């Protein structure tokens, strides 16, 4: 499924971007270009060919790892993306790691102590967390922890300290929604008969939760982690802008401002590809967490 | 003679039943403290949007620059302070409410009508049509929502109309899925079969019998999506791809105030809080509605 979907994604994005008004050739050549040179370059770039031909050519180049050259710097798009990708990877993986680490325990405790003070406060915080736009959270964290307390740098990428604020900013929304999902699926699971059986057998409460309930309760949580990853990648665009983080998201925003279409195209493709791969991994993980799914296929 | 009387009788009972159903939902919704808080909050914002001209003057307070009064801290004359051009932040937030609510509601309407139609057709007809529609939507789903919106605006150019189109289109797959799922859940019911048996046309069955009975999840989803559309609007405006300054919008106010956070943090505080409160109130209502519509879950 991954390959046809990606082909579709690239075609769709290619089509959307081709709607951009303005002529690429005259943009590359700048204001002083003569009519003949523009026509010549248009011809060279094949801009007058039908869209589907241009798409075919792009795909053919893409298969060989060539995503074209940037309109504004002339550098290779693939090269720029390869250089920036590890930074976005570092940021998003840290964020998802943080949110799983925080959200699963809170979700489990909230469910086992439903309607307790801990549960109520946790759920209110989770709702507020979902409702906070990441770029604003980022600004507030900068004001508190960078400008006033001076604990972390307010932007840029120098060492592990500079990763803390952007990773937390990015993690907040996904932490909130994974917490909510873990809680509600845990609540569903602990009401099932087999949990009662385990309790009746005299298994300790702790063991019932960790050994019997958690595994099944985690299945919906894992799905949400996959979906959240998509939101996280989108959030990376904003977080990287706020923290001047040199990743793909910031590259994309800058390229849009410079009307650098090949670069924008490359960024969207790489984002969608990462998102699809993560969801593929999640699908495979499923079979390990939930043997019932594997049984369906054999 | 007996046939018309039975139908009017049936219509009558049907109507009262429908009314009491939504009345029940309303009764249950009223009992949820959080949902009521959400409703009150959103009412306040609706009032602000509706009566904005009575609260502040658009030309004079929200747009008019006043260098003498720039960057003033909150005071009695300027409740939330003034921005870098000496404009009253409170007035700008009030007018920003209009834009946020308007864009949020219109873009969700776009997504609901287009995505809903696709989902209803896919769910009702099934088979090959369903397959074709869902495969196309898989492609749209593979691009993270906000990135799809960013790409569309980047190509079409930043304007309020393009913003609504972009946010609307990027939400189509979500609505299609929800509508399809709820159509699937009712389409094999006996009353649908009997409607078909008396020769009702497909679109009559879908519009009159299937959709009204599968409304519950759609209403909840739409409420939550207005919240995320408002968030997306301000995110896009923050990176310069949405509402352009000087038109007051919460996201572009934050972008403008960003440079002054070191000494004037209030400048980013109130626009951000406006976003959080609107989004939070819609999320509270959405959650409350979900519980009220499906009492089994709690």
Fold blueprint:
The complex is a heterodimer of chains A (298) and B (298).
Chain A: H1 2-18, H2 24-29, H3 35-45, H4 51-63, H5 77-112, H6 117-131, H7 134-148, H8 161-189, H9 193-201, H10 205-242, H11 248-257, H12 261-289, H13 291-297
Chain B: H1 2-31, H2 33-50, H3 52-55, H4 58-63, H5 89-125, H6 127-141, H7 145-156, H8 160-170, H9 172-186, H10 190-197, H11 202-213, H12 215-238, H13 250-257, H14 266-293
Which key features would you list for this structure?
heterodimer, A: mainly alpha, MetI-like fold, B: 298 residues, mainly alpha, 0% strand
Brief characterization of the structure:
Chain A has 13 helices and no strands. Chain A has 298 residues and is mostly helical. Chains A and B meet through helix 1, helix 6, helix 7, helix 10 and helix 11 of A and helix 6, helix 7, helix 12 and helix 14 of B.
Explain what you see.
With 298 residues, chain A is mainly α. Helix content of chain A is 79%, strand content 0%. Chain A has helices at 2-18, 24-29, 35-45, 51-63, 77-112, 117-131, 134-148, 161-189, 193-201, 205-242, 248-257, 261-289, 291-297. The longest helix of chain A is centred in the last third of the chain and has 38 residues, at 205-242. Chain A is elongated and about 85 Å long. Chain B has 298 residues and is mostly helical. Chain B has a domain at 98-297: MetI-like fold (Orthogonal Bundle). In chain B, helix 5 packs across helix 12 (215-238). Mean pLDDT of chain B is 85; it is low at 1-9. The interface between A and B is large, with 47 and 45 residues.
